[in-house]
Design brief:
By secondary structure, the protein is an alpha+beta fold. It has seven helices and five strands; from the N terminus they run αβαβαβαββααα. Helix 1 crosses helix 3.
């Protein structure tokens, strides 16, 4: 008699620990599900990061009573509880994935009845569990966020990769065309320099011509001076002629 009691105590301890560590538990009634169907449900929940356990209602009552959880009304009929656990790859499951797995299975198997549950010690109704199943799972949200962030970065990276290529194409085009439009080819540069040198050599000649013009300027001034000297003589001749005419 002592050994069966020890087993019951172990089960109660297990249920208590799962309620304490999981944070989420969804209670179901599996009446009418055969063994293959139960195996299929367990596999679906395992892939979603959950664990499906069948316990006697009396032992579950003891466990939830110790934790102060009010779930007596859900512990009727054959009861199995889906707890949030870990996925096969070791990643943590989440309440949304568990609720979605149960909802999808219940659509194809009417014998599975969702009765209610707990989320962080808060009671969940059947409607709330079904609504929880409609939320996008955490992994999909992270993937969507990563995709939204990666798209601009990929476009920016493509732009950075295109800049050197476009620059290389532009430089090659200039080389093929012999330089920028209107610019002399590389081989003609010395000729242009020689032409500039010739212009520079001719500049002193222009300065000498200006100097010759400057030298001739005094000659023009002397001519003006001679005209000025002759002006009084002209005036005297005119005055003399006028005097002679008056005497006559």
């Amino acid at each position: 008699m002592g050994e069966p009691r020890a087993e019951k105590v172990a089960v109660v301890d297990e249920v208590r620990e799962k309620f304490s560590t999981s944070g989420t538990a969804i209670l179901t009634e599996y009446r009418g599900l055969d063994v293959p169907a139960l195996a299929e449900l367990r596999k679906a929940l395992r892939e979603a990061g959950g664990e499906y356990k069948v316990y006697k209602n009396t032992l579950v009552r003891l466990a939830v009573g110790d934790l102060g959880l009010e779930m007596e009304d859900l512990l009727t009929g054959p009861t199995a509880i889906a707890f949030v656990g870990d996925r096969p790859d070791g990643s943590a499951g989440d309440p949304v994935s568990i609720a979605k797995a149960l909802k999808d299975f219940a659509k194809a198997n009417e014998s599975l009845i969702i009765k209610g549950g707990l989320l962080d010690e808060q009671r969940l109704t059947v409607e709330e569990i079904l609504a929880l199943a409609e939320i996008v799972p955490r992994e999909e949200l992270l993937a969507m966020l990563a995709g939204a962030m990666a798209a601009p970065m990929q476009q920016f990276a493509a732009l950075l990769n295109a800049l050197p290529q476009n620059m290389a194409y532009a430089l090659q085009a200039l080389i093929d065309d012999g330089g920028a439009p209107g610019a002399p080819a590389s081989g003609e540069a010395p000729v242009a320099d020689e032409a500039d040198a010739e212009v520079a050599d001719e500049a002193p000649a222009a300065d000498e011509a200006d100097a010759e013009v400057a030298d001739e300027a005094p000659a023009a001034d002397e001519a003006d001076a001679e005209v000025a000297d002759e002006a009084p003589a002209a005036d005297e001749a005119t005055d003399t002629e006028i005097d002679n005419e008056e005497e006559e």
